[in-house]
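User: I'm putting together notes for a lab meeting next week and I want to include a structural view of one of the chains we've been expressing. I don't have a solved structure, so I'd like a prediction I can at least talk through. The sequence is below, exactly as it appears in our construct file.
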Amino acid sequence: MDRAIEKKRWPVKRKLTWSIGGGIVLLIVGSIWLGSGKSRLNVDPEKITISDIKYGAFTEFIPLNGIVLPQTTIYLDATEGGRVDSIYVEDGTLMEKGDPVLKLVNTDLELDLSNRETAVFQVLTEMQNTRNQAEQHTIAQLNMMAEVDNALAEAKRIYDVNKKLYDDGVIPLQEFKSTENVYNFQLKRKSLSEKTLAQDSISTKQQLAQMKESYTRMQGALKLMRRKVGDLIVRASVDGQLTSLDAEVGQSKNKGERLGQIDVVGSFKVRADIDEHYISRIYTGLKGEFIFTDSSYTLVIKKIYTQVTNGRFQVDMQFDGKVPVGIRRGQTLQLRLALSDETTALLLPKGGFYQQTGGNWIFRVNEGSTKGYRVDIRLGRQNPDYYEVLEGLKPGDKVITSNYETYGDMQELILKK
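Assistant: Thanks for the context. Below is the predicted structure for the 417-residue chain, given as structure tokens.
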């Protein structure tokens, strides 16, 4: 009698071994296939931006924010310290040169002025007294000189008479000698009186000259002190508009402290902040432009402030040609500063792709716009609208310039809805 032979089944252990082995083989094959192929991603073409690569006019420029300032600003500083006593005008007032702005009070300065005035008056009085005394002394000397001259004349007359009488033998020798001695004495007396008068005159002149010099110096110091007291009234130094007035009645101001400024009306400049990255490429003469009330205006860099603060430095720009009508101090302007002359270059429109690629690669689209392939590129100069393409692309190419944030490390994009 035949009996059915039961077919042996695989043990569980063998099944598990073959399953693990098959999985490993499949994993290896899949890894090889993925490694040798390209990673792909389906992308909706309506959600991306495709731009053309073409030659065009290129000017490298950077956008700036500029603020309108007066061309000339004169600062009002406290020449002397003091307490604010009066304020004559308000901030924004149009001033003429010499108009008072405010008054400071400084009692120490005013007391010093009073003391100097007293000292000058005393010196002047002393100089006048000295001159009067000198004149009186000179008169007394002249009177004495007159008496000496008279005595000499009388002695000479007697001497001449007695000499003749002696020569004629009328008078003795002793009487003649006595007359001769008197005459010689009067001669010496006159000589001494003349020397004394001359010396007194020189001494008086020197004394008066010294006092006059001292008086002149004190007058100069007094004039300076009066000017300092006069500076307690702060005045406009030029015609213009008073701005930034910083003073309140009763407030104390130190010497040299800023009180406000006078802006010369009618002429303006524009001050702009620039990133320090461009500091080596900025020089006087560079031109920028801006649009104001639908018209284009040109500015030229005239001054560069090389001090860098918070990664930025400043430049002053003046209007090249016409100045916009209606422009105001403090107004902000959107500027385009040209860093190069206009040239022809291969242009790549700017887009969000740069954030992920750093300008090192981009997705180039095929002729049928069905796929995008990753290609390496090299970019050069840039402006707010375009990059300059140096390598990797040619005119007529189409590239995806929108954001690549969701593409990861994909090598190929499939463009289909």
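A couple of points you could mention at the meeting. The two ends are 71 Å apart (CA to CA). Confidence is low (pLDDT under 50) at residues 29-36.

User: Perfect, that's what I needed.
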